[in-house]
Amino acid sequence: DEAEYQHVFDAAVAADERIEPRDWMPDAYRATLVRQIAQHAHSEIIGMQPEANWITRAPSLRRKAILMAKVQDEAGHGLYLYSAAETLGTSRDELLDKLHSGRQKYSSIFNYPTLTWADVGAIGWLVDGAAITNQVPLCRCSYGPYARAMVRVCKEESFHQRQGYELLLALSRGTPEQHAMAQDAVDRWWWPSLMMFGPPDDESQHSAQSMAWKIKRHSNDELRQRFVDICVPQAESLGLTLPDPDLRWNEERGKYDFGTIDWTEFWEVLKGNGPCNEQRLTQRRRAHDEGAWVREAAAAHAAKHSGGTEA
Ligand code: 3HC
């Protein structure tokens, strides 16, 4: 009976065992995983737009090839994650419908514009850096398919972060104009990158339950702090400054203190009032409509060959 199943589930989570698609799980566990995995997938897909903006204008063939590879990786991450979500009994069509109609979210970070080539470096270094800080613990998430998808994603994310860092280093050591362009990009992407980790712990609606289920292994503020501590020395070696006058090493904490985040901006962006929200969703809906013929053709092909007999 239900109580027995609940007991088996609780014991498995407590023992750090993986919950697999065919295992019994509380409806709320299933629902929060669909919510988080779907929004993670949506973030990967929408995240292709800001960077794709620069593929045709990359300054060299090498940079163009790297950026194309990265954008293709993001698409792949989206597909892994939609597949992980489908193991929970939902369909990709349903999830995309919710994205297109604003009933599901994607990461706030992608509602900011990529104004110069240096933004491609800042996104790689900061946005993919933050994503790695968030995704490494997710490799130990209690839900098997999500945790396994994260292992592959994290490997590719490290390349994304390194190429961004290297791009910024080249600019920072370049002409004064190139240095200024790199500094301007870091100034615009730093605070929105900190917002990627979610609201402060005391305003996080899901953290307590997600941590009890070992979906979330560290709180939003813990991972945000970890990210700041990683970035400060990296900014120094880049020869760039982080736009936070309150940033300073705190000896007894053994961590960096940093300034206050503008949470009004965060909640405004989540409400749809960020610089690029409208543009991102319009572009996404257009891409979905223009791609309908591919989905129809693939479905027709699959149906023709589903009888198992090669026609
Ligand atoms: N952007 C948009 N929505 C956000 C957000 C952000 N940065 N941070 C929090 N939220 C939303 C949550 O989704 C939740 O709303 P919902 O109930 O409608 O889903 C609400 O704000 C309250 O936040 P909580 O902290 O209570 O929510 P979570 O426990 O889900 O924590 C999270 C938020 C840390 C983002 C968690 O969902 C998570 O770890 N998700 C997986 C990682 C992810 O989505 N990363 C996207 C980064 S971009 C990326 O990976 C692409 C890379 O390749 C560049």
From TrEMBL:
Query: Which NCBIfam families does this one have?
Result: PA_CoA_Oxy1 (TIGR02156)
Fetch the SUPFAM superfamilies from UniProt. Ferritin-like
Give the Pfam families listed for this entry: PaaA_PaaC (PF05138)
Name of the molecule in the record: 1,2-phenylacetyl-CoA epoxidase subunit A
Q: Which InterPro entries match?
A: Aromatic_CoA_ox/epox, Ferritin-like, Ferritin-like_SF, PaaA, PaaA_PaaC
